[in-house]
């Protein structure tokens, strides 16, 4: 059984033309790192928060979200408390928004242990100091006495990682944990997350709009557009041969992590803008931005997720998306093209 499992999850808000999430199926196993990628507004953060039972107010929720076998959609207050205090933790993208600015770091790190688990203050402080050392902060005792404004953004994000691990969860939800950091600090934070994930055999769901980051850190990737999963595959297979035009567009508009050995790679942005919640179309939600959309096909009904090799793809033209020759694929990640027709 998967540690985290979404089954046909749908979330709709009153007055909106389309659902926030529409039939999401996604799994994360223990010891696995899974990425959920897509542009801003695609529904990634709502998906992650659902794994803690944090649904938007007045939302109509369908389907199931299970963490270690507990369904968060139907769970009572006791079940939700168990998940949030012992099974799953979340790291948010802005560390300064997730911590009380007038309380010391030690108070933040020990509160859950003292209030929810009955630890003494001394025992909780020892645990907090151990975690600060584990995330690479050089002087845990001093940092426990400091206030958030006395730490840099990178140091504070390390504190947030330590806070997420205080109760030894099995599942870690990371909502764009490096967005507010500079490039060198981003690499440090991802290295820390990777090391802790391996040491503790955590299931980890990484929410990001950076598909290159997903390539470097994750075992599998789910690509989301307008509240739907449009493609999922093992990371290496998805980058070698993306089958959905949106996935190919994300790769084609992202600079490679390493410099290509041949000519510079030309980046090609995806035309248009993502769909808002007040926008709705009868067919493929990406059709208006897709140069390969066919009238009478792509505008008739939403394509279902169907197997194509090792991938699941929601595209009426998935069979027309083919990999480029190996010589080019070796030099750039945006290694796919569509056959016009």
UniProtKB/TrEMBL annotation:
Cited InterPro entries: AAA+_ATPase, ABC_Ni/Peptide_Import, ABC_transporter-like_ATP-bd, ABC_transporter-like_CS, Oligopep_ABC_C, P-loop_NTPase
UniProt KW keywords: ATP-binding, Cell membrane, Membrane, Nucleotide-binding, Transport
GO CC term (a single one): plasma membrane
Location(s) in or outside the cell: Cell membrane
Annotated GO MF terms: ATP binding; ATP hydrolysis activity
Gene Ontology biological-process entries: peptide transport
Pfam families the UniProt entry points to: ABC_tran, oligo_HPY
Highest taxon in the source lineage: Bacteria
Domain ABC transporter span(s) in chain numbering: 4-251
NCBIfam families: oligo_HPY (TIGR01727)
Protein name, entry field: Oligopeptide/dipeptide ABC transporter ATP-binding protein
Organism name: Streptomyces iranensis
């Amino acid at each position: 059984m998967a540690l985290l499992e979404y089954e046909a999850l749908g979330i709709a808000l009153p007055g909106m033309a389309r659902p926030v999430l529409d039939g999401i199926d996604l799994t994360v196993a223990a010891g696995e790192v899974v990425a959920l990628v897509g542009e801003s507004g695609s529904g990634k953060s709502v998906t992650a928060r659902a794994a803690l039972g944090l649904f938007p107010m007045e939302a109509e929720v369908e389907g199931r979200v299970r963490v270690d076998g507990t369904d968060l959609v139907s769970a009572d207050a006791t079940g939700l408390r168990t998940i949030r205090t012992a099974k799953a933790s979340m790291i948010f993208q802005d560390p300064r928004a997730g911590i009380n600015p007038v309380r010391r770091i030690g108070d933040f790190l020990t509160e859950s242990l003292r209030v929810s688990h009955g630890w003494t203050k001394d025992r909780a402080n020892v645990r907090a100091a151990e975690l600060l050392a584990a995330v690479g902060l050089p002087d845990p005792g001093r940092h426990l006495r400091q206030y958030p404004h006395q730490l840099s953004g990178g140091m504070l994000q390390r504190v947030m990682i330590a806070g997420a691990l205080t109760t030894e969860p099995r599942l870690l939800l990371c909502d764009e944990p490096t967005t507010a950091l500079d490039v060198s600090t981003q690499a440090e934070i991802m290295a820390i997350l990777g090391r802790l994930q391996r040491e503790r055999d955590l299931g980890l769901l990484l929410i990001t709009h950076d598909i290159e980051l997903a390539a470097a850190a994750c075992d599998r990737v789910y690509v989301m557009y307008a509240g739907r999963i449009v493609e999922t595959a093992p990371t290496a297979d998805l980058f070698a041969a993306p089958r959905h035009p949106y996935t190919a567009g994300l790769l084609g508009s992202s600079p490679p992590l390493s410099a290509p050995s041949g000519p510079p790679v030309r980046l090609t942005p995806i035309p248009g803008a993502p769909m808002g919640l007040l926008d709705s179309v009868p067919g493929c939600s990406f059709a208006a931005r897709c140069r390969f959309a066919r009238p009478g096909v792509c505008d008739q009904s939403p394509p279902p997720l169907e197997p194509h090799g090792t991938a699941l793809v929601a595209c009426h033209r998935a069979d027309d998306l083919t990999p480029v020759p190996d010589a080019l694929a070796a030099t750039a990640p945006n290694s796919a093209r569509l056959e016009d027709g």
